Amino acid sequence: xxxxxxxxxxxxxxxxxxxxxxxxxxxxxxxxxxxxxxxxxxxxxxxxxxxxxxxxxxxxxxxxxxxxxxxxxxxxxxxxxxxxxxxxxxxxxxxxxxxxxxxxxxxxxxxxxxxxxxxxxxxxxxxxxxxxxxxxxxxxxxxxxxxxxxxxxxxxxxxxxxxxxxxxxxxxxxxxxxxxxxxxxxxxxxxxxxxxxxxxxxxxxxxxxxxxxxxxxxxxxxxxxxxxxxxxxxxxxxxxxxxxxxxxxxxxxxxxxxxxxxxxxxxxxxxxxxxxxxxxxxxxxxxxxxxxxxxxxxxxxxxxxxxxxxxxxxxxxxxxxxxxxxxxxxxxxxxxxxxxxxxxxxxxxxxxxxxxxxxxxxxxxxxxxxxxxxxxxxxxxxxxxxxxxxxxxxxxxxxxxxxxxxxxxxxxxxxxxxxxxxxxxxxxxxxxxxxxxxxxxxxxxxxxxxxxxxxxxxxxxxxxxxxxxxxxxxxxxxx
Amino acid sequence: xxxxxxxxxxxxxxxxxxxxxxxxxxxxxxxxxxxxxxxxxxxxxxxxxxxxxxxxxxxxxxxxxxxxxxxxxxxxxxxxxxxxxxxxxxxxxxxxxxxxxxxxxx
Amino acid sequence: xxxxxxxxxxxxxxxxxxxxxxxxxxxxxxxxxxxxxxxxxxxxxxxxxxxxxxxxxxxxxxxxxxxxxxxxxxxxxxxxxxxxxxxxxxxxxxxxxxxxxxxxxxxxxxxxxxxxxxxxxxxxxxxxxxxxxxxxxxxxxxxxxxxxxxxxxxxxxxxxxxxxxxxxxxxxxxxxxxxxxxxxxxxxxxxxxxxxxxxxxxxxxxxxxxxxxxxxxxxxxxxxxxxxxxxxxxxxxxxxxxxxxxxxxxxxxxxxxxxxxxxxxxxxxxxxxxxxxxxxxxxxxxxxxxxxxxxxxxxxxxxxxxxxxxxxxxxxxxxxxxxxxxxxxxxxxxxxxxxxxxxxxxxxxxxxxxxxxxxxxxxxxxxxxxxxxxxxxxxxxxxxxxxxxxxxxxxxxxxxxxxxxxxxxxxxxxxxxxxxxxxxxxxxxxxxxxxxxxxxxxxxxxxxxxxxxxxxxxxxxxxxxxxxxxxxxxxxxxxxxxxxxxxxxxxxxxxxxxxxxxxxxxxxxxxxxxxxxxxxxxxxxxxxx
Lengths: 479, 106, 529
Description:
The complex is a heterotrimer of chains A (479), B (106) and C (529). Chain B is built from three helices and three strands.
């Protein structure tokens, strides 16, 4: 029998605020020793109270808007009660039935060019828990991560393969960075994913029991874990067994799934309104203030780049992979004023290599879009030749000086003034009467030798076409 | 009089609550719970119209009375040592608790 | 004969300290000596409940050294010509449910017996900044769960200074016993269902439950987070007003502490009650409670002495020019306790989740097989029976399949209780009341061990106080005389949100109107002993 997979993803997104959601500890403690970035609030000491970080709400609103979610004018925090050693209060402050936003979708371009619309069921704000690790039969706990602001976003069961799940995460990651709401680095746990997986005979319209895979925390892990689980479920069903609603844990090192204890997952969270926090009143004034700087989104921009600049899909896709690069491109096109495709070529061939090598984003380059445009223009005009132009990219980046200044200071300008070249050529002919005689005697292959002499005399700056034309003229006609 | 909290339900609650009780405690607590629930049942008799909303707080907050959200500015806590000195067991900065076993999946 | 220092009003101590007639150190030493004479051994884990039955036992932790240091600081500021604050040198105690940096903050539970808070609760910090001198932490029901202070894990529990065989009430029983016995002029308590007002009534002192949000809860170890309010315990209305003045106001550490300006509670204190409309409700002159034997609901009128005390107070206020409005209906009063059984337990169960032996407080010393067993044993051994009862009840009524029937229903009934008050306080409504005048408690102080163990009867001691907690409104309990047994009677004033000024003003007028009555000159028994 042929099966299809039904997959929904539950993502946890760490917002890149300066501080935690309910206290003034810093949000990012990636480089800190365990239990150093903590305070009474995020470690759940008795008597302390949460105070909501404004920036967390604002970033959540940006994301909700980008997901086309409806933002509630009044939303509430609730307590989700359960015991776990990484949860110091014994409850997580979350949002339950009246969360910040609801509904929405993300359009995900698939590799075959199709667009898959993945619906969003839930979008809410909550606090992150700490980290635990096993060591020799004991569990070690680090509270540094407690209270980092999270958005939990749950998709509908709209995803049909491990590859589609991976594409969803790739697009989500792109969007989060684009909006500037999360660093979205999966290796650092900024973007984490649990996957709900079930299978059914292809074409069926019912849903089978699903398993939930926890800790799938890289794009590759998402592909592998879901792939592995789909195969396991098919094996189980074909072997006459049943799929039970287990919670599974993905071990990335060994590439295996393990079943979590049922007691850990037996859930009655006894949600109720968090009495220590007031509701979030997202009135129109605050909302428009937040959304005032809302950017054009990557897919929209991709479409526009194709329409407005006549770029091929391939170029438009690469140029909108990251917001800084796409902003850079537009600024360079505008400074350049010529064919956008020419800017795209320079960017994707040469500037991209510089970015990859340096680890910088386009916006961080000292080679500004204006400088790039200047270089391309100089090449277009023949002020410098193409190899010199490419060399200028590095030189501009290194010095931060304008390419024109560099060209002048280093005398890199291409000699295209035909009078100047004519003088040099005439001098070389005058200095080498024997070669002139041999050329005129039929050894026309010596033209290359004359070219070389001119280039040596001009340190490579002479425009080769002009030089060739003048040399031929002088050699062929002044006999 | 029927017992709302049966011994089975009581055991379930005790497990959820992560409590270990002596038999005497268990007996007393279950009896008291059933007594309290009898009192609570008085609530069932009150007619509740459709539009009566739940009140999470008694006093309602207005824009004037509500504190604004916190500005996103880092203030390191100066007394982390005092927090860790309360922890029953630590090791190299980590808080230590007994393990939570997993089952391998074949 | 002049009043001995331990019985001087707080405002009088502050005046004398500020003017240099007394030093803060003198006051502190005098009160510490008095404590040594009347309090006996402090409550301790495994202590004998019957130890020294002739003492008050208000304290868990006496911080005498810290108090003397603080007093010296106040004196030094005065010597340096600085303003020592409005409570300069005033000795006060703190219910041991608040955290105070560097001192044990036990919540009267084995669970927190070894917990040393690294931060100070906002109300305590504000009192100390105003020059008040903290004497120590006083006893209470474990985690505030009770109405007699007997459920403390730290025994002996406090006794009522008026009659040492009686409970002081609770849960702020250590606070009210201390203030009544002259062990500090003020005490900081908390009120979740009546935990300040009920013991204040039992001990013949003034107790204030401010409007929810008026005083920061930062540093208050939570019971019912939507109900808990820190509040003053004092021997007179002026002192209570002075104390609230210092404590009230917004706090960046508490998002439920309101940003409304704090009025000057003292300036209007002597204005009298002329023109104020004060209501009497028949619904506050009877109680409904389940029969301890068969559980059937019984309705009973209040004891005559309590009823008379309230009516006499109404007459006294009327004589001062207040307009008394009778037969004010408060139909949902009787549902306060059943709704409270649900709401407070849900919040309490959640608030007690954090006590799991992982980060602080008690962890079992028995060997355990896994984490879950560590939780069960630590919580089983660390919590007394009252926390366990509240946790289990909270678990039950908020479980997914029951919460609609119990929790959500209770929250909607809370709305009805709130609406009772809104209707009678509505300035455009039929009643237009400035305050309701009611008894504080359905009984006077009961004998020790009499009600303890019956969690239902114990809870019904709060029947007349709990509606204010549901509604969030302020309440003030005042001494209203003594019954035939010589036990204090309490009368209660309830007002609209943030009307503490009005309540103080009425309370002060009542104090003046009754200043010459014989009971005012009577002092608690322990003072003579």
